[in-house]
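Hi there. Long-time user, first ticket. I'm pasting a complex I've been working with (about 368 residues overall). I'd like to know whether the download I got is complete or cut off, because the file seemed smaller than I expected. Thanks.
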Amino acid sequence: MKIFHGTLVALLLILAGSTQAAGTLTPISGDVQAPDFSLQDTNGKTHRLSDYRGKPVIINFWTTWCPPCREELPSMNRAWHQLKQEGIAMLAINMGEDEDTIFIFSADYPTDFPILMDQAGEVIEQWPVKGLPTTYVVAPDGTIAYRAIGSREWDDKTLLDMVRALK
Amino acid sequence: MSGILRTVVTVGLLACGFTMAWLAHAGVQRSSNEDNGLEKWHFIEGDIEIELVQRLPDQTRAMFMKHDFSREVVEAMATSCMFQTIIRNSGRSGSGQPVSIDLTQWRMRYKGKQRGILLKEPLIESWSDEEASPAAKLVVRWGMFPTQQEYLSGDYNWGLTAYGIPPGSMFDLDVSWAEGDKLRTGEIKGIVCAPDVDRLK
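Hi, the file is complete. Here it is re-exported in full:
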């Protein structure tokens, strides 16, 4: 009976481990330079990626009509409240929508980090994005360190520690 | 001796249990959403998972009308048998291999005939500026599933796939993907396009 219980527990641990991949970031090998951009946020402030050189930056591409984008926004906001005092930046680039659409959306999905607007879709074209959401973590030297295709639980400690380790 | 035996039995049971749990997931599961009646086909094989969720023509009409497509384009897209599609590299096998898809290689079989599925690039190119504004084309570009993509363990993407047959039609889909450099294939049989509003009971 003890063997059975031990086996069951071990099996559950293995199965749990096999699904953990969903909470990870994919390392990008080679020195892939992050394409620079200059975009306005919903408050009218201009953000240039190169101005963030020297600190890790999480860059999330999203739209309001993308269900997994909506799904991960709350955890991104929780992560932002952990990271903002640690010298790590987070920018969410909305693709193709106007300020009014984002404003109405933000009533249901409040976020405190900057939401940048790429209305013509010109910036997203410069990045190797194929679907939404896609998130990149840019290292302090301006190279792309990690990528995540699909949503993540951004306040997961393992995941955030990978970002912190870039400092 | 009994300790060694116990270890051997435990390891054996673990291996069997893990294999059974893995195999139990392989294949195609068809299910229905109790709230809206929409059906889903969930294909699981190796590290890949493909989910196809019926999309009502009216859902597509609403999406395309909102983005100022011409009436002709809206109706053509609404009745083109669209599915909300999710493709994932679950990483279940533990191989750590990337999974790659190329939708140009997928084949659908409908009424005894075989052809590829609709891809977003030719669709977008087929519309004039009068039929779809640059902003509208952006929505399709990012709303429809990418034609080629690679997923590392834990990655997934979602988007619309279209099959270009009437609402309510049934078809089979031959899917293919690569795990590392190994090409793999599978089949999802009896997929049914969502019916149009006037056919709903």
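A couple of notes from our side: The longest helix of chain B spans residues 2-25. Residues 30-199 of chain B form one domain.
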